[in-house]
Please model this.
Amino acid sequence: MPTTDTKQIRKVGVASAEPEGWETSRLVSDIRGRGVECIVFNVSESVVRVGDAKPSAQYKKHDLTTLDGILTRAVPGGSLEQVILRMDLLHCLERLGIPFMNRPSAIEKAVDKYYTLRLLDMAGIPVPRTVVTQYARDALRAFRRFKDVVVKPLFGSGGVGMTRLDDHEIARRVFRALEASNYVMYVQEYLEHGHRDIRVFVVGGEAIAAMYRVGSDWKTTIRHGAQPEPCRLTSELENLAIRCADVIGLEYTGVDILQTRRGLVVTEVNSSSGWQGLQQVTDFNIASRIVDRFFQVIHESQR
Model:
């Protein structure tokens, strides 16, 4: 992908929960290296004002309404009120005509595991059998059906909070504890995958790279110690990952895929994918590819 002309782009923002994070730093460095001013801001620290003559969204001394585009690296978690306010801020900025990558509407779909899985399933994309409920009795019925399950938080990333259950009594106790604490139970059949999965990275409708994530146990996230290994991008992997990105509406995403006896099965589509592990087994600059597409999105909005 050729470097995008930046002559009409003066100042952009990167929305990040970790302003000093590895991925954020590389995005900012690439943007500034093209002669474009870049503001890194945390949505949770932004202030909005209503009723003034001009819409206002402020991060420290920076007026976010003056940005030519916003690259959403990550929106911080929090209480329901906090998350709603943060997403409302992004939606309002988009309504003012500021182009986004990824768009707030796509982020809202991707952060909800149930909603993501339902949309993929409706599009005919293979996903694990999953039961989502607020009641322990229904979660136990799912456990009896699947025998071996993975329980995940409805919101979250990096494998945090994931638990595998293959004992009925332990499952009963876990589900009752989750019900007592008013949690939603996301109960997914465990699929044997040889302690590895595939992460395919999609940017602008193109699958640009892939890796195996090889773990010492069933958890295969880099955060849990899995190691990245090169993975050849087959046409089947490319087409599957691109379809997932299109269904959720993501300009850039990491799609997590298991190789199972049933074939390829999609487990996650991420709106704030990291690529530090993938960069270790990729011979081009992933951040630069993301910024190329980001600037294209801005130029397309200016036509």
About this structure: The chain is about 35% helix and 25% strand. The two ends are 20 Å apart (CA to CA).
